[in-house]
Amino acid sequence: MLRGFEVKTTTRGYLMYLTITSPGLKTVSAEVSITVPRSMREAWIATTAGNVQAYDFDGQVEAETRGGRVQLDRIKQSTTVRAGGGDITIGRIAGPVKCYSGGGNMRVDSAGGESWFETTGGEVYVGEVLGPIHVSTGAGNIKIVRSTAAVFARTAGGVIEVDQATGLVSAQNLGGAIQVNSAKGVQCESNSGAIRLRNVDGSLRAITAAGNIVAELLAGHPIQDSTLSTNAGDITVYVPSNLAMTVLARNESGGVGRIVSDFPEIRIRQDRLAIMPLVAEGAINGGGPVLHLVARAGTIYVRREK
After folding, report:
1. Element spanning 227, H or E
2. Could you tell me if 150 and 167 are in contact, meaning their C-beta atoms sit under 8 angstroms apart?
3. Exposure check for the chain: N or C terminus, fewer CB within 10 A?
4. Which residues form the domain of 209?
5. Is residue 104 located within the same domain as residue 189?
6. H helices then E strands: how many in the chain?
7. The pLDDT of residue 255
8. Is residue 213 in some structural domain?
9. 180-198 pLDDT tens trace
10. pLDDT tens digits, 108-118
11. Burial class (CB in 10 A: 0-12, 13-18, 19+), 138
12. Is the pLDDT of residue 21 over 90?
């Protein structure tokens, strides 16, 4: 069995290739540990069926496995990971990160540049990225703690949660809720789930086919023209007292639909026969960017932020 193992080294330019081949027996496997100077420019690591680990490296790292887990930490340059279906765990990376998995969970503590995380089925957790974040999963929750730029997130089923982004948050969910706790502009769409926006400003666009929408606008930060719309659910907007904006609300729920406002400037036009949609509009603090609110089955609330 030992004669079935083969170790080869070849050199091409500044690259050195180390290849280990093991016997094609189910009862035999190989585990390889390599120590190199951390100042090396780059490392490429690939295995057909096994785990990959790499730590304390100043150059860039590319890791690939068809059927194992990947663990990386304390890498100073860009990092790329491709996994056939195992989980990916990444600690602190000083450069950008690209992760692709055929169906596993991903966890990343920090990355130092624009990063991509894609899995066909699994949960994705991202701590902090100094740059834009692109996240996509076929089925699973997405949690992003902080991005210093924009966030683009998509899941076919799960919860999308973004704690803080200094840029636009674009989130699409085919079957679950979306929550954004701080962002400079929001574009959210859910086929079946609630949408909650907190401490947001800029341009807001939130649409859900079934679920409530709650938006808390940020005091001292004006919004741009925005739209909140739900086919089945309530819409609640909390507006700071000193925010200048114009509200156009439309409730198509028929006779059971309501529009409730804490601002006397917003006037409701009531159809006596309850045939036409219920409409309300008004200028708060002299008016400004237009906030469109559309509910097709539910109640619209415009609340004064205390």
Report:
1. strand 226-230
2. yes
3. C
4. 168-306
5. no
6. 0, 29
7. 67
8. yes
9. 999 999 999 999 999 999 9
10. 999 999 999 99
11. middle
12. no
Q: What angle do CA 29, 34, 36 make, to 5 degrees?
A: 165
SS3 254: helix
**Cβ count within 10 A of residue 303:** 15
Determine phi and psi for 253, rounding to 5 degrees: -80, 0
The dihedral formed by the CA atoms of 291, 294, 300 and 306, expressed in degrees to the nearest 10: -20
**Does 159 reside within a domain?**
no
Residue 144 pLDDT exceeds 80: yes
Give the mean pLDDT of 125-141.
97
Within-domain flag for 208: yes
Give residue 268's identity as a one-letter amino acid code. I
241 CB neighbour count, 10 Å cutoff:
12
Please give the C-alpha separations between residue 34 and each of 38, 107, 165, 244, in angstroms, as whole numbers.
Answer: 12, 25, 39, 62
The answer as to whether 156 is a domain residue is no
pLDDT computed for residue 274 by the predictor: 55
Please name the residue that has the structure tokens 């490429």.
Answer: 44
